[in-house]
Amino acid sequence: MRKGLRNTATALFMAACLAGGTALAADAAGGASVPGDKQTPGHHTYMFVLSWEPEFCYLHGDGHPECAAGDRATSFGATHLTLHGLWPQWSSACSLSAKDNDPTWKDRVLPPLSPAVQGTLAEVMPGIASGLTLHEWQKHGYCSGLSADQYYAQAGAMVKTLGAAKAGTLLAEATGKSVTRKALCDALAADFGEAARQSAVLGTGKAAFLTQITFTLKAADDGTTALDAAHLTDSPADQAGRCDKGNPDEALKVAGFK
C-alpha cells in the first residue's frame, strides 16, 4: 500500500475512534452496563478469525485501499496472519447485519478506543482502511458483552500472540513458498497444546493457497477470552479444515506480496 494512503487511512481511523460515539465513551472505558440485546458474558464461545492478507488481496483486492501497491510488502500483514474478527457464537437477535433491518444497527457506533488499542489495530488489522473495524463492532463486537476497547484489546493481543509463536514464525518463513498441513498443525499444537488440533481450522482457496485460520475459544465468566490452552475448544466436527482432519502431507501455499 502506498505510504501516504496507509497513513491517511490510519489517521482517519484514529480520528473516528476519538470523535465518534461520544454517548458511548463510558462504554469504551469499560464502565457502561451491557445493553439488553447483548449476550450475557460467560455463556458463549468465540470464533477467532484470522486472514492471510496477501491471498485476500489477490482474491478481493479491487476496491480495498489496504491492498493498494506500496509499503504493504513491509507491513505486519505481509508475513503474519491479521485480524478479521472475533465472533460470539450463539443464536441471538443481537448478531444481525444492516440488511436484516435490525433496529439497533444504526446505534452501534464504534465508541472511542484507547491510543494503545488504536495503535495495535493499525498494525494487525489492515481492513481498518476499508471500515472493517466499525463493521466488526456492529455485527459481532457489540454482542460480546465487552466494551469496544476491551473487545479490540483482546483481539489484537491474540493476533500478536500467534504472530510471536512457533506457528507465526513458521508462516513468516514460508511466505512465498509452502508449508505442509502437518507442520503447521504441529506448530499450533506446540504453541497452544494438543487441543489446537480440534480447535484450529485451516482455510484454503484455489490451488491450496492458505486464506485464513480460525479458532473456537471459550469465553470466561466475564466475557473475555485468550488464545491459549485454557480457552481452546473444539470447532464443529464437520469442518474439513480442522487440524485433526485432512491429508497431513498436503502442501499449503503461502502467498506473498510481489
UniProtKB/TrEMBL annotation:
Keywords: Signal. It holds the Pfam family Ribonuclease_T2. Residues 1-25 form the signal peptide. Gene3D superfamilies: Ribonuclease T2-like. The keyword Signal applies. PROSITE patterns: PROKAR_LIPOPROTEIN (PS51257), RNASE_T2_2 (PS00531). One of its GO terms (molecular function) is ribonuclease T2 activity. It comes from the Bacteria. GO terms for biological process: RNA catabolic process. Belongs to the RNase T2 family. PANTHER family: RIBONUCLEASE T2. This is Ribonuclease T2.
